[in-house]
Write a structure and sequence with these properties.
The complex is a heterotrimer of chains A (543), B (95) and C (225).
Chain A (H helix, E strand, L loop, with lengths): L20 H5 L4 H29 L10 H36 L8 H23 L13 H5 L4 H28 L12 H33 L12 H18 L2 H15 L6 H14 L15 H29 L8 H24 L1 H7 L3 H31 L5 H28 L13 H31 L51
Helix pairs in contact in A: 2-3, 2-4, 2-16, 3-6, 3-7, 3-14, 4-6, 6-7, 7-8, 7-9, 7-10, 9-11, 9-12, 9-14, 10-11, 11-12, 12-14, 12-15, 14-15, 15-16
Chain B lengths: L7 H21 L7 H21 L8 H26 L5
Chain C lengths: L21 H36 L1 H8 L4 H27 L2 H31 L15 H37 L9 H25 L9
Helix pairs in contact in C: 1-5, 1-6, 2-5, 3-4, 3-6, 4-5, 5-6
The chains are: A mainly alpha (543), B mainly alpha (95), C mainly alpha (225).
Chain lengths: 543, 95, 225
């Protein structure tokens, strides 16, 4: 906007307006809270990654030589719980969503800034409980807390872990509530629903799941806690209670939660693809509706996790049918991204590489999802490595790719500095290669019949497991790189322009980094989203 | 802002009806209706809940249409939870 | 407080800086409260769906368990909560009219009713405890199907327990609002917190409206005594 020659350091922004630990811990600025979340979830990403590392090392050889069976149970349990509840679910909404949604809709803050801060503190309380669980010897129920294993047979920290996730759930609920109200009530003049960026739509869809699903998880974990502590027998088979009821309640949230772990990523990728194709996103309306459709349909499919657990065949048929329905909006999204690329002027920047990775890997993950939604095939692959590979293609190949893509895309806005593009591309490439090397062999392993959650396996599976472990090491390097160069760039990176990518969207019309109140004057929106036909200038950063 | 303020009388009438309905549901439990006991009890409870929501919580007077959408969405999702779970339990070939 | 925005109207002390108008702020706040109540519907919904499934599977034992509810205390408690809802509604009305004394008085009565409810509930709880009707090692039941009756009591304790917890939180919130009202924080222009606490209170009342027939009134033969 203004001349880029003005040294950015001198400009007032949300980072330099106030200093000191207190100005961060008591802030109500959504951008600062986003950074608090960024720190917290990065911490948990590395804890979860550490568990993953140990898992892969154990599986290097067929014998159970590195850790005991019990330890291994704890490793995969805590890997799952930490990664799902403390990294993936808050990753895009609580960091990028928190930072960007108010700016994207032209507001000064979220509707309830203090509630936003509260939700971070609740997250920290949950984190403390989780850390206590980990340090106190861990928990080995599997991340799903299935009863009666969790209520009867284990003596480890089930209550503490359940409480940690119960508490963190409230953090998600408050974030979702805040987003919904903000998007409804704080849009700038002229920012109609059909002009909202898809990132905002995606977070809206995610918030619906937060608000409607998370309380059911909360109550099911609370009931597990009551059963352990006070011997109430809600799921106790000896009293005629039905352990499957727990699974129904758990998956009523936890399947939609899978969509919490992909919808925001779809929002990120939509922004990146449109920007680096320099083109209006193909089929905007369908894209927005598909996001909402995935969120809603996501609530109708939960029992496909229970096909072999003993639910009735008729119920299984219904849930299988709805599971196939989810493929329709998902396919709409993939086709529309592809159509956006068609005849676009594409720049192969780091965020775009991540977006390409996302589209390909999400498609793989989604297609294998159809395999396991089929009642017959599911019997063969349930609880094998096929499932592990399938959901890691969605969660890691999809969501983590999108999260990193988004971090690179908006890093200039967040920090006011450019990351080093060459290193960025290298890391993106390493992650893509490492990811596929880690998880593609697991599809084959699963199909061959290697069960999940065992610390030993038959020797004929070793070659593929070694490949997988080798891939995981590459992946680890790929994840460490951005961590290093993001930190480096905060001090030494090139000063970022207000709009280094030549992107459309209100966040690029304010300064980098934005001021505390985001805009000097609330903008009035008179254009559609992704009006790339009206933006001709292509800045140097993307060539 | 212009908000509707209900009269004291309205509130007291609603409260009196709620008390009557409570007496009715307590009395109805003495009737021998078999499985219709639960239907009647839930019907009365829903009447009471509707009264509380419409008048005490002011849904009837509220100007935002959005509130209705939010409430209906909540009830609809509860319906999804109950009905889809029940598809399993009512059609199991084993107990 | 925060006054960075030049558009802030000086005569609206309750207006936060990121809202353009008071109306927008109130709208947002009311909507936020309703969305929160929806999460509460789903929270209790999880227990209601469990209740429905088991009641469908074990109707006989649940009928039996319901015989051991205290019909009169349950009914009186329903009345107490309905009365508290009335005083809460009148309190909110007083805040809309800017009648500070009335507001404080009605809210204090509401708190009393809430405490009364919890008092009666604890009398009931004590009775059940003494009679060995708390699930676990000390559960005693001599009739048929003791296991499934224990399941019924598990639901009774969990559902009413979580409800009582909500009443307790409600009392805390009302107390805070009483304190703020006493300080004169609310008037005809700004009384949104009173309204939201009212919404919460009425919602907790609605949950009880369903719990009462589902737990106390399954059967029609309250003849045991």
């Amino acid at each position: 906007m203004t001349t880029a020659a003005v040294p950015m350091r001198e400009r007032e922004n949300y980072l330099n307006q106030e200093y000191g630990i207190k100005s961060w811990l008591l802030t109500t600025d959504h951008k600062r809270i986003a950074l608090l979340y960024l720190l917290s979830i990065t911490f948990f990403f590395f804890i979860g990654g550490f568990f993953a590392l140990l898992i892969r090392l154990e599986l290097l050889t067929p014998a159970g030589d590195l850790v005991q069976a019990d330890t291994y149970n704890k490793l995969f349990t805590m890997h799952g719980q930490v990664m799902v509840f403390f990294f993936l679910i808050p990753a895009v909404p609580a960091v990028l969503g928190n930072f960007l949604i108010p700016i994207m809709i032209g507001a000064k803050d979220l509707a309830f800034p203090r509630v936003n801060l509260l939700s971070w503190y609740i997250f920290i309380l949950g984190s403390a409980l989780m850390l206590y669980t980990i340090l106190n010897g861990g928990v080995d129920t599997g991340w799903t807390f299935y009863t009666p294993l969790s209520t009867e047979f284990l003596t480890t920290n089930v209550v503490a872990a359940a409480m940690a996730i119960f508490v963190v759930g409230f953090s998600s609920i408050l974030t979702g509530l805040n987003f919904i109200v903000t998007i409804h009530r704080l849009r700038a003049p002229g920012m109609t629903w059909s002009r909202l960026p898809l990132f905002v739509w995606a977070n809206y869809a995610t918030s619906i799941i937060f608000v409607l699903g998370t309380p059911v998880l909360a109550i099911s974990l609370a009931l597990v806690g009551l059963e352990r502590m006070f011997h109430l027998g809600i799921f106790d088979p000896r009293l005629g209670g039905d352990p499957l009821l727990f699974q129904h309640l758990f998956w009523f949230y936890s399947h939609p939660a899978v969509y919490v772990m992909i919808l925001p990523g779809m929002g990120v990728v939509s922004e990146i693809v449109a920007c680096f194709s320099h083109k209006r996103l193909f089929g905007y309306r369908f894209m927005a509706l598909a996001l909402i459709a995935i969120a809603v349909l996501g609530f109708l499919v939960w029992a496909h996790h229970m096909f072999v657990a003993g639910i009735s065949l008729y119920a299984a048929l219904i849930f299988s049918f709805f599971s196939y329905m989810v493929a329709i909006p998902s396919a709409i999204k993939v086709f529309n991204w592809t159509a956006t690329l068609y005849k676009g002027s594409i720049s192969y920047t780091t965020p775009m590489l991540y977006a390409f990775g996302f589209i390909g890997l999400f498609t793989m993950g989604g297609m294998t999802g159809l395999f396991v939604a089929a009642l017959g095939v599911d019997v063969h692959v349930t609880d094998t490595y096929f499932i592990i590979a399938h959901f890691h293609y969605i969660m890691v190949g999809g969501m983590v790719m999108a999260y990193l893509g988004g971090m690179h895309f908006w890093w200039p806005k967040i920090s006011g500095r450019m990351y080093p593009e060459g290193w960025g591309k290298l890391a993106a490439l390493l992650i893509f290669i490492g990811f596929n090397l880690t998880f593609f062999p697991q599809f084959i392993l699963g199909y061959m019949g290697m069960p999940r959650r065992y610390w030993q396996y038959s020797p004929e599976f070793q070659v593929l497991n070694v490949l997988s472990t080798a891939g995981a090491s590459i992946l680890a390097v790929g994840y460490l790189l951005p961590m290093v160069y993001f930190l480096w760039s905060m001090r030494y990176g090139k000063i970022a322009d207000d709009n280094p990518w030549g992107a459309a969207g209100l966040e690029w019309m304010t300064t980098s980094p934005p001021t505390t109140s985001n805009f000097d004057e609330i903008p009035t929106v008179t254009w559609e989203a992704y009006n790339y036909d009206q933006l001709t200038e292509v800045p140097v950063e993307r060539q | 802002m212009s908000e509707h303020i209900a009269s004291k009388k309205t509130y007291i009438v609603v409260w009196a009806s709620l008390m009557c309905l409570t007496a009715a549901t307590a009395g109805a439990s003495y009737l021998e209706l078999g499985h219709f006991n639960i239907v009647l009890a839930l019907l009365i409870a829903t009447c009471k809940a509707t009264l509380v929501a419409l008048i005490f919580m002011g849904v009837k007077y509220i100007s935002q249409k959005m509130t209705w959408v939010v409430i209906v969405a909540g009830l609809f999702w509860l319906f999804i939870l109950i009905s889809l779970s029940m598809t399993d339990y009512i059609s199991r070939s084993w107990r | 407080m925060s006054d960075s925005s030049p558009t802030l109207a000086a005569h609206q002390p309750g207006l936060q800086h990121h809202f353009a108008t008071m109306e927008q702020q109130t709208d947002a706040s009311v909507m936020g409260m309703w969305v929160f109540l929806v999460t509460e519907i789903m929270f209790f919904g999880g227990m209601f769906v469990g209740y429905m499934i088991y009641r469908y599977m074990y109707y006989g034992p649940w009928l039996e368990g319901s015989q051991h509810m205290d019909f009169w205390w349950g009914t009186i408690n329903t009345a107490v909560l309905l009365c508290s809802s009335l005083t809460m509604a009148l309190g909110v009305r007083a805040s809309q009219l800017g009648q500070r004394r009335m507001l404080v008085t009605f809210l204090l009565i509401t708190i009393l009713f809430g405490l009364g409810f919890l008092g009666i509930k604890s009398i009931e709880y004590h009775g059940h405890w003494v009679d060995g009707q708390f699930p676990g090692a000390n559960f005693r039941f001599s009739g048929p199907n003791p296991a499934q009756v224990e399941l019924f009591f598990s639901f009774y304790w969990a559902m009413t327990g979580f409800h009582a917890l909500h009443v307790l939180i409600g009392i805390g919130l009302v107390t805070y609002v009483v304190y703020r009202s006493w300080k004169g924080a609310y008037g005809p222009d700004y009384h949104n917190p009173v309204e939201n606490v009212g919404l919460y209170w009425h919602f907790v009342d609605i949950v009880w409206i369903y719990l009462y027939p589902l737990l106390y009134l399954i059967s029609h033969k309250h003849l045991s005594g």
